[in-house]
Prior knowledge:
Elements: H1 3-34, H2 37-66, H3 70-100, H4 106-126, H5 135-162, H6 170-198, H7 209-271, H8 275-306, E1 312-315, H9 316-327, E2 337-339, E3 347-350, H10 352-368, E4 378-386, E5 389-396, H11 403-406, H12 426-436, E6 440-446, E7 450-458
Parallel strand pairs: 2-4
Antiparallel strand pairs: 1-3, 4-5, 5-7, 6-7
Helix pairs in contact: 1-2, 1-7, 2-3, 3-4, 3-5, 5-6, 6-7, 7-8, 8-12, 9-10, 10-12
The protein binds adenosine-5'-diphosphate.
Amino acid sequence: MNQVLFDSLLVIYLTQAAIGFALFFIFRHFSLLYNRRYLLTWSWSWLSFSGAVALFGYVAVATVRYHIGFWPVQLLNFLSLVLGYSHLIFFLVGVTELVSEQDSKRSTLLKWLGASVLLSALLVISYSSGEEIHPLRDFLRIGIRMLITALSFIVAGLVIHFTKRLSGGLGHRIMSWSMILFGIEQGYYCVIVVMSSLFSINVSFPHFIGVIDIAMIFGIGLGMIIWLLEDERRKLKKANQELDSFVYSTSHDLRAPIASMLGLVNLARMEVRDEKSLELIGMIEQRVKKLDSVIGDFLTLSRSKKSQVEMVPVSLNQLIDEVVNDVKFAQDAPSIRLIYDRSHNFTFKSDFTLMKTALGNLFSNSVKYHNVDQPDPFIRVAFRRVNGKVQIDVEDNGQGIRSENLGRIFDMFYRASTSSNGTGLGLYIVKEALAKVDGIIFVKSFYGVGSTFTILLPQPKQ
Length: 462
Ligand code: ADP
């Protein structure tokens, strides 16, 4: 064989073995991480594949370059055949486990592996009688394996392609098509082997075929990984939706008993005269109200997550009016001056309810965390358009936030102050509501001086 061709064949075998080995590690890791059996089965398939091509390559080099003995070559042939068949068996069992969503029985797997050991031994022994190349030998040792490989990959690719449950995403398509193409390529090899071994027609493999091999194997591995990540994402999304529905329905169901508890507290206050009991009733009322506000925040969060976004022209004047209306009865609100120029009649495109939720929470915080013992407590709202975006600033000269807390105030349940009995959900709700209209929010604040929350909203092109 030409030296250059020989070396390039070696490189191809080694590359395939390296890809197989890398995929073995990746699939083993994912199988432990996600606890899915077919990933483990596939990992064994890739390990067998890697071993088979490495041995195949070694036998090719050893027989030509080192003239190793006859029996060691037979042993290596036997091992590479066993590994080659194991690769197929593990691969098919993995596909069956994936498609049927059922783990295979270990005893069935062992039976198949046993059969492959027997078949490989038979093939090696039956044609090991002499050095002379038997015409049937190549067909039986290589041709049949290629035929089975071709059929297995084509059938597996088609089954995966037509299994609707597997989604039809990019990973699914890459995986199924690479399997089908790999199968067709192996079928083509098989035809060449049959022609040269059975009919003595000398057709050689095209030089570039090894590179196509690598591309297909890489495609199958990559497709499997992308599919796995897409599938995990789908499962995570589903789990999140279920969690959101659970939070929504639980909060909803808790609302009614809480309202009756508050009613009963009021009733008790009318009936009871004893000072100590009245004090206890007051404490119960406070706790129940706190519970009510947590549940209320959960409901607002769930509603804004569930709601369909409706982009409409929003009037900032109307938005501010409604928000101010909601907070005007809060403690200290009357002492705070609102600085906002209504005369510009600003309008922008967004979802009115989500914007009301966001601005409502910002206003209620500015009131809650204000400092009314100063000459001019104020909340200032400013609006402008910057680079096709709308910027809304809500500024106050209240308590401000310590710099070490600034990075966490948008986290769920994070409270940076004990001066109010908040739930720590307000700014998280603001962030989530704005995310639904692709908006972002950031804050600038100086402790003891005040805070400015800035909302940036992209605007659809006219
Ligand atoms: P909550 O108000 O229920 O505690 P939020 O998520 O609304 O929760 O706010 C998180 C924390 O950010 C608050 O505990 C408070 O310390 C701080 N904060 C939010 N808005 C302001 C503001 N306008 N001025 C000062 N501190 C604020």
